[in-house]
Amino acid sequence: MSALTELRAGTTTAPAGTVLRGVLHEQRRTVVLWALALCGVGSMYTAFYPSVGGAKMDVMLEAMPPELITAMGFEAIATAGGYVQSTVYQLLGAILVLVCAIGLGGRLVAGAEEDGVLELEIAAPVSRTTVYLERLAALWLVALVLVAALTAALTALTSVMGMDVAITGLLAGSLGLWLFGGALGTLAFALGAATGRRGYAVGTAAAVATLSYVLAYLGPLVEGAAWMEQLSPYHWYVGGDPLTDGVAWGGYGLLLALAVVAAVAGGLAFRRRDIMV
User: Fold this and answer.
1) Separation between Cα atoms, residue 265 and residue 205, nearest integer Å
2) 192-240 per-position pLDDT tens digit
3) Does the pTM exceed 0.90?
4) What is the CA radius of gyration of the chain?
């Protein structure tokens, strides 16, 4: 309520960043818990590499069906960079960031509206566009904090363990993870802003994320279905093997374009819609 108090304190126009600061203040505990969880999971699985990596992983891969190796992207998992990418960036890290970003995206407008908080904020001396943009900025800043925390933890751990993982590779993978989580979080945010329904926003964004995984995994397995990968935001994120090959500018650009299109469409709908109707 501190942000609402400031907005309604008698000023003609609320200072820039008031809504953003209020949202970040409200979400501070949640951000810390998510960051700790993400760092803990990423560190735990990375720490397993000396026990399963190298020649041991080669033996395990030989026992797996080639189709499964292709579908899961395990071709380079025997290397340190490939292992971190497959276990952290492609699976657990991506899932945790997506859950947080999509859930937060659904709450920031639609959830606030359902709770009766957004109407008070709209009545304060601040435009709808400002409310929309600053709440969207909060989503991206939260995602950035999570990814930055994961990057710092992995950088320290791989250095201490002597793993051959370049910092440039970690930064490339983390940039993709931020864009991937931010894009699908923005989709949930925009749908929530356009409809005022948190369940619809979160459910639709989660369905898109799930379909994205399915398309990326089926594309290499089904003959003549390479087009599936090209339609998958997940493939845009990991298709270029960022930890080993660096930034995949084409895929990352598509993720950014998805976020921009969703944000613009949601913003236009939010400006015209009656709140709490």
Assistant:
1) 15
2) 999 999 999 999 999 999 999 999 888 877 777 778 889 999 999 998 8
3) no
4) 20
Q: Which residues make Cβ contacts (< 8 Å) with residue 196, sequence separation at least 6?
A: 109, 110, 113, 114, 273, 275, 276, 277
> CA-CA distances (angstroms) from residue 18 to 13, 23, 119, 133?
10, 9, 16, 12
Could you give the CA distance from residue 20 to residue 221 in angstroms, rounded to a whole number?
A: 44
What is the C-alpha end-to-end distance of the chain, expressed in Å? 23
DSSP string, 169-198: HHHHHHHHHHHHHHHHHHHHHHHHHHH--H
pLDDT digits (tens, 9 = 90+) for 137-159: 999 999 999 999 999 999 999 99
- Rounded-to-integer distance, Cα 14 and Cα 8, Å: 8
Residue carrying the six token digits 């015209």: 272
Closest listed residue to residue 197, CA positions, set 101, 107, 268: 107
